[in-house]
Amino acid sequence: MEKDHMIHKDGEVDTSKVDETLNRMDSDRADEILGDFDEFRSYLSKRIQLGKTAGLNEEQLANTAQKIADYLADKVEPRNREEQLLKELWKVGTEEEQHKLAHMLVKLAE
What we know:
Strand content: under 5%
Number of strands: 0
Radius of gyration: 13 Å
Number of helices: 6
Structural class: mainly alpha
């Protein structure tokens, strides 16, 4: 069962599972989360708290946020102005800038 999850019991994060994990999400639930920026931020906040409970540090959280942002920027159309801005910033940023933005997104959602 653990092999299907991004976060292992030892606190290690398998960021290669991000696509698979996001693809498993029900489309109605995804629409609900992504349709409103405050809902997205609240959802992200809950996931960050779960990660912290699992023992993830700030760098692991940011790495995971970066993978999720890559996925969203490539595969999901923004549903509001805030998401559109984030996508545009993500697309023009270097990998280093994207990583810094991922750290900022974690802080924003905490």
